[in-house]
TrEMBL record:
<dbReference type="Pfam" id="PF00293">
    <property type="entry name" value="NUDIX"/>
</dbReference>
<dbReference type="InterPro" id="IPR000086">
    <property type="entry name" value="NUDIX_hydrolase_dom"/>
</dbReference>
<keyword id="KW-0378">Hydrolase</keyword>
<protein>
    <submittedName>
        <fullName>ADP-ribose pyrophosphatase YjhB (NUDIX family)</fullName>
    </submittedName>
</protein>
<comment type="similarity">
    <text>Belongs to the Nudix hydrolase family.</text>
</comment>
<dbReference type="InterPro" id="IPR020084">
    <property type="entry name" value="NUDIX_hydrolase_CS"/>
</dbReference>
<dbReference type="InterPro" id="IPR020476">
    <property type="entry name" value="Nudix_hydrolase"/>
</dbReference>
<feature type="domain" description="Nudix hydrolase">
    <location>
        <begin position="16"/>
        <end position="147"/>
    </location>
</feature>
<dbReference type="InterPro" id="IPR015797">
    <property type="entry name" value="NUDIX_hydrolase-like_dom_sf"/>
</dbReference>
Length: 149
């Protein structure tokens, strides 16, 4: 998050509008890949914010590789979220209003493995079962996109 980190040096932790992408990866059983986050210790989607000059789909591809070591042959735009409901306060105090493009990645290449310091673990979850310790923001996105009830 080089660009956002540079902005944070100027504005501190006050709310920023942050554009980004999250990537949904499903295995053959239809289970969703989530990562246990280092900052909040809960389970969240793969993804992150745009870097200057990057498209939403390019950000999705970059984040998929950086966070899980995976590549995808195709990305399907599911929906875009914005507004008051997309407010998030990170455990360390930074505040954001997200503009989030949700992509489903297909034709996955590679095996999931933690590649950066943002994740502790990767695991597939059956969306017909409750996900323990799910990040509230991730739960909101999955509900609004129609993946869970």
């Amino acid at each position: 998050m080089g660009y956002i980190m540079e902005l944070r040096k100027l504005v501190g932790s006050r709310p920023l509008i942050m554009a980004g992408s999250c990537v949904l990866v499903f295995n053959e059983q239809g289970h969703l890949l989530l990562q246990r986050r280092t900052d909040s210790l809960d389970w969240g989607t793969l993804g992150g914010s745009l870097e200057p000059g990057e498209s939403l789909e390019e950000a999705a591809a970059r984040e998929l590789y950086e966070e899980a070591g995976l590549r995808a042959g195709a990305y399907k735009l599911i929906t875009v979220f914005s507004g008051q409901d997309m407010y998030y306060k990170y455990p360390h105090g930074d505040e954001v209003y997200n503009v989030m493009a949700v992509y489903e990645a297909t034709e996955i290449q590679g095996e999931p493995m933690v590649m950066d310091d943002e994740g502790l673990e990767l695991r597939y979850f059956d969306l017909t079962m409750p996900i323990p310790e799910i990040n509230p923001f991730t739960e909101y996105v999955l509900k609004k996109a129609g993946y869970i009830n």
